[in-house]
Amino acid sequence: MSKRRQYIKRIFIGVLLIIIFVVAFNFIHKYRFTKKIKDYEKNNPPMISWIDDDGYYSFYTKMYPLALKYEIPMASAIIAGRDHENNPRYYNIQQAKEMQANGIEILNHGYLHSLDLKPGQMSSVELEEDYRKSIEFAEEHGFLSNIHVYPFGDIGGEVANKSPINFDYAFAYKSNSGPVTKPFDRYAINRIYTDDYSSLENIPLDEIYSQLDRAANNSSWIIVTSHIDQTGKFSEEYYSSIIKYAKDKGFDFVSIEEGYERYKQFEMDWFIKFKRNIKAKIF
Predict the structure, then answer these.
(1) Contacts of 226 (CB under 8 A, 6+ apart)
(2) CB neighbour burial string for 228-242, b if at least 16 within 10 angstroms, e if fewer
(3) What integer is the mean pLDDT of 75-103?
(4) pTM of this prediction?
(5) Is 25 exposed, middle or buried (0-12, 13-18, 19+ CB in 10 A)?
(6) CATH architecture of the domain formed by 46-266
């Protein structure tokens, strides 16, 4: 056999061994991940968390009392660049700290938060500056600087590159969103909205209940999102109905930090990301 044919044969055998290894590794990886999901779903209840965006004063006067009434945790995503001492639209720092002492997480919601310059439209330098200012604000007041809620749910542009450098995990919004998937991307964690900006009305309760049913059937984590007094008239009955429905379904109401700690075992690992990148390039 010529040296050239021997060389080709060795290459062929090497490629074949690599393919066999990848296929076997994929099978074992998928089996273990699937088993982990099944074991979790068998032994754990579904979880629900609640995030209200923007830090409006109406969260303090309307949703915070509901959290106390039903003894559940909630989170409020605060915009660092607003005047929290003189603008009556927003709760002030003292009120934020009062809520925080009573189980309300105060999350990072960026600094600028402007329709004229969304995060995905910012340059790398602008986005880094926005993140820096929002983190400094949160750290100054003892809020959660490491958990980010994307303004407008925008994850375009430089966001995917910069958010992992600045935050531990972050929450987005995607169309047709639902419970947090298994696996999930910790820098694009799903949320469902209770309000519709196109109609300025609340999402019908049947649609919210349907999403809760999906989460309950798979022991998933679901993050409910509101924008109190931004898309229509506030209804305590509406939000109470969601809370009661989730309680009746056996959901654990958990803080954002607790929900993530329980669920982080389902984060995408390097191999899942590798496969998705390959599929994206091929298809």
Answers:
(1) 50, 51, 52, 53, 63, 193, 194, 195, 239
(2) bbebeebeeebbeeb
(3) 97
(4) 0.89
(5) exposed
(6) Alpha-Beta Barrel (3.20)
